[in-house]
Design goal:
Ubiquitin-like (UB roll), alpha+beta, 2 domains, L-amino peptidase D-ALA esterase/amidase
Amino acid sequence: MSINLLEVQGVKCSSISSGIKKNNALDLSLISLIKGSKTVAVFTQNIFCAAPVLVAKNHLNSHVEALLINSGNANAGTGKKGLEDAYESCEIIAKELLIEPEQVLPCSTGVIGELLPLEVFKTNANLLVSSLSKDGISQVAKGILTTDLVEKSYSTSFRVGGNIVTLSGIAKGSGMIRPDMATMLSFIVSDIGASSDELQDCLTIAVNQSFNRITVDGDTSTNDACTLSATNQSKVKLKDCKNEFQLALNELTKALAQMIVKDGEGATKFVEIRVGGLDSNKECLEVAYTVAHSPLVKTALFASDANWGRILAAVGRSKVDGMSINNIDIFLNDLQIISSGEVSSSYTEAAGSMEMQKSEIIIRIDLGNAKTTESVWTTDLSYDYVKINAEYRS
């Protein structure tokens, strides 16, 4: 799923095995940013957000020069001690980097309810800093994983005059995935020059069309974060290439979001729910999410069972006023199964089963004549999903 990442000027990274995870895997990572960089972020909408999220939100008001990430421990549900530990982890790394603690953004992912093992930060801080390298972001892509099966990374670039602007991003996530950020961490770096306000606007737009359009199981975590950092090393200003930068950022975040869905826990199918024809995009999304979150639809997808009644029923219970069954057309890829609320005259069960057996499926739902359309990306629901989550803390 991942690709070779392009080096971004002004960024150094490292990832080591500190012992937080039981399997001796990479679990403690650092992204160091050149002085003068700008960083913005979008965080989980869960009201019980974790300690590192609360600390990171506060530290965004400073001139951020480092992102400190651990996997294997979420530092969530840990109360006042969790907040103190998150801040102390920043102090430990800041001392090694010769910066202020407020210039460090902490991010954690892993098991909820366990205190952060600060000793591993103290013991490994020097190694983490001394291991920083210009091409270390690929190691961080590995170091942030939890139940993921593969790393998720993507790079893109574009030319402005005689200069090249580069964007590289990594992400983790495969379960507890739904809109409002999902259970994911994502870190994006670019050598563009920009103000914090410009970056925040671009990131919000990109996240809304990517990470906030994916759902594996309908659960949102306590630790989700997506950051965007700009190092101002490309000799190009965002204000001079706003459209090009936004398109590149959209491309990158959409690619990472779809990698998360394809790596969904126990997933065997990648599914796009595409809804159109209603009065507003918000109504289209409501229908798409209702279908995408239906356990009956998702288990039918796993079984390759063309049980179109489950899709129709999910559409009907979505919280959208004014829908008429006479306006509903439903397609599996290019195969029409419902026409004006009834089984299409050309549909056969054999043809439906053939489409459902494919590893990538588009369920298209047309509900009227309005020029609206929205897509949500999701997965099927398999035996392995239950097994993975039943054994997560074992």
